[in-house]
Amino acid sequence: MRTQVAIVGAGPSGLLLGALLHRAGIDAVVIEQRGADYVLGRIRAGILEQTTVDLLERAGVGRRVHAEGLRHDGTELAFGGALHRIDFQALTGRHVTVYGQTEVTRDLMAARAEAGLVTVYDAADVAIADWDGGAPKVTYMLDGRRHQLDCDFIAGCDGFHGVCRASLPAGAITAYEKVYPFGWLGVLADVPPATEELVYANHERGFALCSQRSRTRSRYYIQCPSDDRVERWSDDAFWDELRRRLPEHVADHVVTGPALEKSIAPLRSFVAEPMRFGRLFLAGDAAHIVPPTGAKGLNLAASDVGFLADALGEFYGERSDAGIAHYSQRCLARIWKAERFSWWFTSLMHRFPETGEFGARMQRAELDYLVGSQAASTALAENYVGLSLD
Ligand code: RFL
Ligand code: PHB
Questions:
Q1: pLDDT tens digits, residue range 337-388?
Q2: Secondary structure of residue 272 in the 3-state scheme
């Protein structure tokens, strides 16, 4: 098989890149190691920046996010037993959209199927070769046979544990990493959300987040130790702990129900530089990870592939290498700002056992300052709704 761009990974970055390239008349094949149902079953991001919604529109999959996405003009910070609203609309003139990653993936999968584009699911033992030479290729096992996909370019959209970054020789890449001493225990449940907007809670027992997917489906998270295990948490234990960490009047509105999904995600900040190696590009979680506080991961994945689609469009349309040459630099400028914001917001909202009572007082002083200062609130708001693409 031959294509112009071989995309490794059918997560949101791979599928969105495929859709953007299709719109630009560029041929791409997506190779995914898992089945479609597994990919759809992963419960992850929930908040889209406007630039991400714009990209979904550009990719021709904007209809459902417009019809079903919930517009949020602000968010709540909870500390000291009270809620403090950050008004995105008043401070920045912008908003975010609540629409689950599962739905983004579903829309992109449906559009791919409708357009008759090729996605190879359940590809085992995926390998990439010759991205530094003139004949890049991706090989994989399917139905007991090894297949080869020849291409002009390879897009590594295969997530943090993927094969593309791992195939690079030591020394080709510099990685920057911070691992946090805690994780997030998340529960998805078919219960109405406790509040209109999201609540990020700083509490002495640890961080908590009230999020949502729709008016009838809620997503909640609590900070837990890194070595915690999901089997240790019954549904009741989760709901009790969540309520303890919320202001009383919010806790009273938490409607409980059976967990549809319950999982623990580790928290990490990670950036790999550069993001292009000859004819191989890394995009999304394959190149960088943010802790989920601030909801930047999926949005960064989307902006990466937006830049990559532009660069490849220039290459095929205008025979210009300029976009390709600048891909890494263009992405990284945006990525480091989102890394900073996610690290800062994580540091502000979580309990760090090692910083003790002094650390807690510093957080409280910063939170008081944040909600009392228009300048500080604006800095939070403009990062949360998403910085510009330039
Ligand atoms: P993904 O989603 O990991 O997809 C990569 C795909 O590549 C496949 N793959 C391979 N395919 C072929 N060969 C191989 N060798 C392969 N190895 C892997 C995988 O099976 C998979 O299908 O990466 P992508 O596309 O870059 O997308 C990134 C986003 O998924 C991620 O950044 C977000 O989910 C992060 N995130 C959030 N981001 C937001 O913008 N807003 C949020 O509200 C938000 N909340 C979250 C999150 C991530 C979370 N977890 C669990 C990490 C909440 C959580 C709890
Ligand atoms: C989510 O709904 O999964 C979510 C929302 C906001 C975050 C992280 C995750 O900051």
A1: 999 999 999 999 999 988 989 999 999 999 999 999 999 999 999 999 999 8
A2: strand
Q: pLDDT digit string (tens) for 230-266? A: 999 999 999 999 999 999 999 999 999 999 999 999 9
Instruction: Name the residue of 75, 211, 299 to mutate for ligand 2: max ligand atoms within 8 A of Cβ.
Output: 211
Residue 325 has pLDDT above 90, yes or no: yes
Whether the pLDDT of residue 43 is over 90: the answer is no
Any residues with CB less than 8 A from the CB of 161 and at least 6 apart, and which?
none
Strand ranges inside the chain, DSSP E:
5-8, 28-31, 47-48, 70-72, 74-79, 82-87, 96-98, 119-120, 124-129, 137-142, 145-150, 153-156, 174-189, 199-201, 208-212, 218-225, 261-273, 276-277, 280-282, 288-289
What is the distance in A from the centroid of ligand 1 to the CA of 347?
A: 22
CB 237 within 8 A of CB 150: no
Longest dimension (CA), the chain: 63
Rounded to whole angstroms, the Cα distance separating 185 from 327 reads 35
Place of tokens 């303890």: 244
- How far apart, in whole angstroms, are the C-alpha atoms of residue 48 and residue 51? 8
Please name each of the domains of the chain with its CATH number: 5-72+98-176+268-345 (3.50.50.60), 180-266+351-385 (3.30.9.10)
If you measure from the C-alpha of residue 356 to the centroid of ligand 1, how many angstroms do you get, rounded to a whole number?
33
- For ligand 1, say whether the CB of 12 is within 6 Å of any of its atoms: yes
Angle at 30 between CA 171 and CA 323, to 5 degrees: 55
Judge contact between 162 and 156, C-beta under 8 A.
Answer: yes
Q: CA-based angle 79:386:95, to the nearest 5?
A: 70
